[in-house]
Amino acid sequence: MRPALLSISLAGAFERPRSWWRGFWRKLIQILPQGLYARSALIVIAPMVILQCVLTYVFMERHWQQVTNRLSTVLTQDIAALIDLHQTFPGTDDNLMRIAQERLRIDAEFLPKGPLPPALPKPFFSIVDAALSNEIRRQISRPFWLDTVGRSNLIEIRIQLDDAILRVVAYRSAAYASNSYIFLLWMVGTSFVLIVVATLFLRNQIKPILSLAGAAEEFGKGRDPEFRPLGAREVRRAGFAFIEMKRRIERAIEQRTTMLNGVSHDLRTVLTRFKLSLALMGDGEEAQELQKDVAEMQRMLEAYLAFARGAAGESAVKIDMIEFLEELRFDAERDGFDVAIAYSGDPMVALRPDAFKRCLANLIGNAENHAKHVAVEALRDKRFLTIHVDDDGPGIPAKFREDVFRPFFRIDEARNQDIGGTGLGLAIALDIARSHGGDITLSESFMGGLRATVRVPV
């Protein structure tokens, strides 16, 4: 075989067990619990229970094996004594059977001489069978037949003598010490105690982690969580790091808001001077063109500041979404548009109302600029508030649906060339949705145009 072919075959031979092992681990991971609490409980409880089972089985089985051997030795000694008396004192078989029943608690009888029954198959658990067989061979050294399976609580032994066959029936407890129920009780009891202790311990350890996760989730939704680090040293360290990160983010937002307020005041002052100067110039053609430019500049300035400001300084409050959507519909009617509204689910939702209104107003306004009919459908379930804004306009090609969320990106040629804008409407809407911990996606609408879907956690 060529070296290249040999290397390929060896690589394939090693790759097969590796791929099987990877597949096995994937299936095992799918079966194992996914939660931290369940995984921690499994990590703590499983080794303890397995170790307890092994130790209990090894030591208890060894102890009861010794007890079984001793009981088998005593029973065999009694049978050997009966055989010796039968051979030493002929004609006393009736007395021997009576003594065996009254004193030794075994039923013994002497059968006529003949062949022994055929050997029976060995039982699966052959502890008593092996112990009795070894003792009979060692103490009596005669052909024998043994039945430890036929009747569950009895043992039958037949031993071939010179002039007869000794048949002995004894209780199983006389030769075997059963420990199954003791083993089960011990395992169930100790496992229950271990599970209870581990559950109580893990619950106290997992609770601070869940509290930290909840605080981070609340902060991601734009709310102000009440959080105090608790638990183990590492968990408290993560909690203090989260609090410090929260303070830095809030300080950065506050500084940005202060800066934007200053910039907004200064620029609005300059625009006001422009307006006053244009008012003093009269109503000439040049003044009218300048007034249009100033108005356009003011509109663009407001859009830029709205995008940069985001939802800073506003707290989340419970609002009635039905009334909230009705206000948006009324605003659209005042602008001359007809917007259909539908809502289902619990109407009370915690949001930043002004910011979220700006988000939906931007989406509805974007639809109104490029379509004749607009429909808004909202659904509240246990985890999310989902709002669909559908229109019958030209839509947006799939290749541009990610790009339109970039600031200042415009595809007027794909929508309506008569409509201008700053290219910030969808960017502002996405920024507000993400500040609530949600997102916005674009897809095809059942009305033939564009569907904008806002999904935020509740």
From TrEMBL:
It holds the Pfam family HATPase_c. It comes from the Bacteria. PROSITE patterns: HAMP, HIS_KIN. Keywords: ATP-binding, Cell inner membrane, Cell membrane, Kinase, Membrane, Nucleotide-binding, Phosphoprotein, Transferase, Transmembrane, Transmembrane helix, Two-component regulatory system. Signal peptide: none annotated. InterPro entries: 2C_sensor_his_kinase, HAMP_dom, HATPase_C_sf, HATPase_dom, His_kinase_dom, HisK_dim/P_dom, HisK_dim/P_sf, Sig_transdc_His_kin-like_C. One of its GO terms (cellular component) is plasma membrane. The keyword Oxidoreductase does not apply. The chain crosses the membrane at residues 37-60, 181-202. It catalyses: ATP + protein L-histidine = ADP + protein N-phospho-L-histidine. GO terms for molecular function: ATP binding; phosphorelay sensor kinase activity. It is a multi-pass membrane protein. It is found in: Cell inner membrane. Residues 262-458 form the Histidine kinase domain. Residues 203-254 form the HAMP domain. CDD domains: HisKA (cd00082). Its EC number is 2.7.13.3. PANTHER family: SENSOR HISTIDINE KINASE ENVZ, SENSOR PROTEIN CREC. This is histidine kinase. It comes from Methylocella tundrae.
